[in-house]
Amino acid sequence: MCSLFTSFKPLSSKRMLSALLKHRNLHTMSEFIQKLNPLTGLNQWVVLNEDYDYHQEVARAAFADMLHDTERNNMYERALKVAIDHMHAQGKKANVLDIGTGTGLLSMMAVRHKADSVVACEAFKPMGACALEVIKLNNCHDKIKVIPKRSTDIIIGEDMEFKANILVTEVFDTELIGEGALGTFQHAHKCLLESDCIVVPHSGTIYAQIIESPLLASWNRLNNVFNNDGELEIKVPEAIKNCKGTANLHDVQLSQLSEHSFNSLVEPQAVFRFDFSGRTPFIYERSSVSIVKSLRNAIAHGVFMWWDLNMDIDNKIILSCAPHWAHPLKTGKAIPWRDHWMQAIYYFPKELKVSQGSEVSLISCHDEYSLWFNIKEGLKVTDADYKCPQCDCNLHNAYARTRIGQLNDAKRTKKFLRIIDDYVNKDIVVLVLSQGFYAGLVAAKRAKKVYFLETNQVSRYVTASFIKENGLENVEIVDASGVLLAEKANIVLAEPYYTTSIVPWDNLLLLHLLKKFQASLTDDVRIFPQKCIIKAVAMQFDDLHKIRAPLGTCNGFLMKPFDHLIEQSCEISDEVVEAQPLWEYPGLAVSETIEVASFSIHVPNKESNKDLKTTFEVKPGFKCNGIAVWVDWILDDERAEYSTVTSGPVVATEVGKTVQWDVHSRQGVSLLGNREMPSVFDYALRCDFESAECTIEFKPVS
User: Fold this and answer.
1) What pTM does this model have?
2) Residues belonging to the active site
3) What domains sit in the chain, N to C, each tagged with a CATH number?
C-alpha cells in the first residue's frame, strides 16, 4: 500500500529531497521525519524505518538499468581483456584497480581474464558489503581485495601493497564529468597508478549539435498570452524576455523526440576530448570555439549534447550515448537503451537567427563538473560570451523546464481563456488558486478584482513582475495564511498547479486550499475546474521497467545478494507510484483505460471519503510490466469534450498501440520490473479528505 502524498523520492536527476528534520525514537528504533504533504502544502511528521535514508540511497543510487546495459558491460569487459593481454604480452603482471566497484562486476571480469591482482574500492559501505557477498558467491573472494574507502583516501603501502598498472572505473554521468571524474582520474594517476598504466575507458569525447526547435524554445522562454481572437492579453516582462536562463542541463531521451520537432543546423561537432590515460595534463576549466556553417535558414535555440567513450588504447571499442540519428551503429532507432546516461539539452543565453551557409561560432565551455554553450554570429566572440549563464529573472529558478512548456501550451491556455470569457465580467471577483498561472491574469481585464494565490516566494516574485509589466491595478497577490479576502470571490479559477506537487494528483491540494478560503467565497461561487478524474492504463513498456527489474545474472556472474539488497531497500523507501515523463519511455497500452476515481470540485465538506476498487484486464498476447496513472481536469462539466486539461495521453489510448503522452507533464507509474503480472488484477484507491491522504494498490484478483 502506498501513500500518494509521500511519493516524491529522488528520481535520478529529476526529484526533490523530502527529509528535512530527524529525531530518533530509541524505543521503537524508527525515525520521525518531517515531510511535505503535497495535498495540504504543510509539513507533517511521519514514522519511517530508522535506516530509511540509507535504503533510499541504495535504491536510487544503484537499482537502475546500468547493470542491465548489456552493451556497456560487454564493452568494459572487452577493453579490460585488451588491457590485461597487453600487459602480459609485455611480460608484466596485470594489476587492476577498480574505482567505485559497486557490485564488483568489473573486478570479477578482470579475474575472469587472468588479472594477476585486483583491488576494488567502494566508499558507500552498504554497497561495499554487497560487493563482498557477490564476489564470494562467484568464487572470486580470494582474488579480489575490497577497500571500503574513496579512492582519494587510499594509501599505497597501507591499503594497497603497490601501485596498479590498469585502472577500470565508471564515474560518469549525463554530463560525463559531473560526478567528479576529472579529479578522480588525476588523483589516481598521481598516487595509485604506474606511469605506464592503461586506463579503461581510455578517453571520452563530448559532442554538440546546434538545433532549431519550437518545442525546445517553449521549455526555455515564456511567450505572451493571446486571447482566442489572436489579440495580445498578457505581456511577458522584459526581464524574463532578456534573461540568459541557466546553464543547468535538461536531461532527455533525445531519441524519443519526434523527427518533426527539430531541425539540425549543423552536423554534430566534437567540442571536447578528455584524455583519461594520464598522458596529457588534466584541465579543469577550458573553452572551445567551433566555426560552422548553417545548413538552413533557422533560429538556433540550443544544442543537443552527448558523449562517447573510447574504451581501449587502440580506440577500436567505442561506447556511444548518441541519439539514434547520430549513433555509430547506424541501426535506426534500435540502439542500446540506457537511463543512467541520457542525452541533454542546453539552451543558448540568446537565440540567434542564422541564414543558410552563414558562419557562426559555437562556444563550448566546462569547469570541473559542468558544461555550458553559447552561439555568436560569425567570429564576433567576446570575453562575456564565455561566461556561465545565470538566471536573473527568477522564472528559471521557480519552475522546471516542463512547467515553462506547460505555460506556453497555446491549446491548453485557450481552454482557460474560454472559461474566463464565458464567466468573468466587471461585477465578478476572482480567486486564482494556482501558482504561476499567468493566463489567469487575463481575468483581471474582465473582472472587478482578482486575488492571486502565490505561496512560493520565487514564484510570487515572477507573478508580481507580470502584474507590474501589464499595469494590472486590480490584482492582489495573497498567500494561504487563511486571512479573509477584502471581497468575497464569485469565481475560483485554478489550473491547478503547485510547485510542491510531484505526481499529478498532488494538485488536489486545490481541495485543501478551497477549505482554507471557504469564508472568502460567496454561497453561489463557481469553481473551475469542476471535476478531477484519475485514470490508469496497464502498460507494456519497452524498457522503463528495467529500472526496477532484478538482475539474476550479469555477464555470467550471479547477482542474488545485490538483487536482495535492492529489493529490500526499494520495499522500504520506494513508493508504489512514482512520477516519470512517459513520453520519453515508449510502451503499448495493454488494457482499456480505466477511470480510477472521479471528484467533483466543490466548496469543502461536500466530497465524501472514497473507497474504490475496479479491475484491469490485460488483453491476450500482451504482458503488463507497469501501470500508468494520470489526471484529467474537467474545467466545465457541461462542455467536457472541449474543456479537458490532461496530464496523460493526448490521443485516446488503443490496446496494442504506443501511447502518446503529454510532453509537458509527468505521469504516475507503478513499475513491476520482471514480475509476472496476471492477466486480470484489481486496483484499490482510498481518498480521505480530512487527512488529505490518498492510497493506491494494484494486486491480483483473489
Assistant:
1) 0.89
2) 170, 179
3) 204-393 (2.70.160.11), 403-521 (3.40.50.150), 531-542+586-700 (2.70.160.11)
